[in-house]
Design brief:
Pathway: Pyrimidine metabolism; UMP biosynthesis via de novo pathway; orotate from (S)-dihydroorotate (NAD(+) route): step 1/1
Bound molecules: flavin-adenine dinucleotide, FE2/S2 (inorganic) cluster
Largest sheet: 7 strands, antiparallel
CATH topology of the largest domain: Rossmann fold
GO biological process, one term: 'de novo' UMP biosynthetic process
Structural class: alpha/beta
CATH superfamily of the largest domain: Nucleotide-binding domain of ferredoxin-NADP reductase (FNR) module
Helix content: 10-25%
Number of domains: 2
Number of strands: 16
CATH architecture of the largest domain: 3-Layer(aba) Sandwich
Distance between the termini: 27 Å
Function: Responsible for channeling the electrons from the oxidation of dihydroorotate from the FMN redox center in the PyrD type B subunit to the ultimate electron acceptor NAD(+).
Keywords: 2Fe-2S, Electron transport, FAD, Flavoprotein, Iron, Iron-sulfur, Metal-binding, Pyrimidine biosynthesis, Transport
CATH class of the largest domain: Alpha Beta
InterPro entries: Cbr1-like_FAD-bd_dom, Cyt_c3_hydrogenase_gsu, Dihydroorotate_DH_ele_sf, Dihydroorotate_DH_Fe-S-bd, Dihydroorotate_DHASE_ETsu, FAD-bd_FR_type, FNR_nucleotide-bd, OxRdtase_FAD/NAD-bd
């Protein structure tokens, strides 16, 4: 299934962090089907931008038919999105892609930058005490995300590069101790490439199964244009991040 096209009314659109916006859109079919790790392919309401933009689903409320996304303004498409108003409609295709394995008893979710969004969806969908969350940012302003996480997470660890909030250092720096002291069944990682690579190496060293969410520029979003490929670790070619991913076993992709 390659998702549904739904034109949803924007119900909430708030500036929540440095260049970061949170949007809630009424997309009942997508809200009902979406799983943590999946994304919506958003058509910006501006005829100058033909290609859709992939944005992770940060949470859903299936009862109210709401999908939440959190995005950073990095270019013209996301800039145009930031000008949309509550009551405007947004054309979304989704839910697309693969999802994180949520069956394990103790999952450590590690997120950096806007890569925290799918980890937030995982935490919201998790069972009481199932997840430990590790998020990092450059400074206190960048870790505003901490307040969005539900109380049911087992432990919330926040790091900042400058030490202005939580533990000083990169998010991955806490992983060796965490993996050594607790029984961890799975690590799920989304963020900058270097962070995912390091987290995946640390998980492997500790014998912890690891899934990563890959990011590539996308065209179609449904596996037909080959615009989003990443290399397979077994040397047998490529995966399409939109359709084979974005969530992969860290052992199967070149990070
Ligand atoms: C599966 C997936 C989930 C994503 N989830 C989120 C999310 O939850 N929140 C969020 O803010 N962003 C997310 N992104 C990234 C988002 O898609 C891009 O930031 C967005 O498409 C940029 O559009 P633009 O028109 O503003 O920028 P453009 O004008 O197209 O590009 C501006 C700059 O950003 C770079 N860029 C554009 N797209 C990407 C990309 N996919 N990866 C790396 N660099 C890129 C370009 O090279 C350029 O330097 C996700 C991407 C993927 C693949
Ligand atoms: S974006 Fe077209 S194949 Fe992935």
């Amino acid at each position: 299934m390659s998702g549904f096209v739904e034109k949803g009314i924007i119900r909430v659109h708030n500036h929540v962090g440095p260049d970061i916006w949170l949007m809630q859109i009424e997309l009942p079919r997508i809200a009902k089907e979406a799983k943590p790790g999946q994304f919506v392919h958003v058509k910006v309401n501006d005829p100058r931008y033909i290609l859709r933009r992939p944005i992770s689903i940060a949470g859903t409320d299936a009862g109210r038919g709401i999908v939440e996304i959190i995005y950073r303004i990095v270019g013209k498409g996301t800039e145009a999105m930031s000008h949309l108003k509550v009551g405007d409609t947004l054309d979304c295709l989704g839910p697309l892609g693969t999802s994180f394995d949520m069956d394990k008893d103790h999952i450590v979710g590690i997120g950096g930058g806007v890569g925290i969004a799918p980890i937030l969806f995982m935490a919201r969908a998790s069972r009481e005490g199932q997840m430990t969350v590790v998020i990092g940012g450059r400074n206190k302003e960048e870790v505003f995300w901490k307040d969005l996480f539900p109380k049911k997470v087992r432990q919330m660890i926040v790091t900042t590069d400058d030490g202005s909030y939580g533990i000083k250092g990169f998010s991955v720096s806490v992983l060796p101790k965490l993996f050594a002291e607790e029984k961890v069944d799975e690590a799920c990682v989304c963020g900058p490439g270097i962070m995912m690579r390091t987290a995946a190496e640390m998980a492997k060293e500790a014998g912890v199964f690891c899934e990563v969410s890959m990011e590539r520029r996308m065209g179609c979003g449904i596996g037909t244009c080959l615009g989003c490929v990443c290399d397979r670790k077994d040397g047998k070619g490529h995966y399409k991040v939109c359709a084979d991913g974005p969530v992969f076993n860290a052992e199967e992709v070149v990070l």
